[in-house]
Write a structure and sequence with these properties.
Elements lengths: L1 H16 L5 H8 L3 E5 L6 E8 L4 E8 L5 E10 L4 E8 L4 E8 L5 E9 L2 E11 L3 E10 L5 E10 L1
Antiparallel strand pairs: 1-2, 1-10, 2-3, 3-4, 4-5, 5-6, 6-7, 7-8, 8-9, 9-10
Length: 159
């Protein structure tokens, strides 16, 4: 009985380690890895992104001290079942969000979000891409399916 249990454990462990996802998925996400800050905010902002467990997804641990001490965690991974990347974020206020993401023509990701607010349906498109000095991040939004407007853009640099 013990040999059967050990055999089943070894089988499940090897299938969990081997082939978590295709190599191209890992390559598509790997540009996000690093210890980052926002250019000009080096003393107050840190985003540390690392692989989790056999490169199954990336976890980014963010500290933002610009307006108090704000902490959040983001998870970026691949959903084979749904056929797209996924961004999940949770912060110290209890808020969270999940957005589907897709490869973009800048060798990065574009994530699509939406939420209902007092102003109506707010849709967002967040772009992240590798740059020569780090990462570019830009977001735009649309309220109630109106035209898209820029929310802002930041440049991430290595710490």
């Amino acid at each position: 009985m013990r040999a059967v249990a050990l055999g089943l454990f070894a089988l499940s462990a090897s299938s969990a380690i081997a082939g978590v996802h295709p190599p191209e998925v890992e390559q598509q996400l790997s540009f996000i890895l690093g210890d980052w800050t926002i250019k000009g905010l080096e003393a107050n902002y840190r985003d540390h992104c690392t692989w989790f467990d056999s490169n199954s997804f990336i976890v980014c641990d963010t500290s933002d001290n610009r307006r108090g001490n704000h902490h959040s965690i983001a998870i970026l991974g691949w959903s084979a079942e749904e056929g797209h990347y996924t961004y999940q974020q949770y912060d110290d206020s209890g808020r969270g969000r999940t957005e589907p993401c897709y490869a973009n023509d800048q060798k990065g990701l574009t994530c699509l979000g939406q939420r209902q607010t007092k102003d109506g349906l707010v849709q967002t498109r967040s772009y992240i891409w590798p740059t020569v000095t780090g990462l570019g991040i830009r977001q735009e939004k649309s309220i109630n399916a109106d035209s898209w407007t820029d929310v802002g853009q930041v440049a991430y640099i290595k710490r």
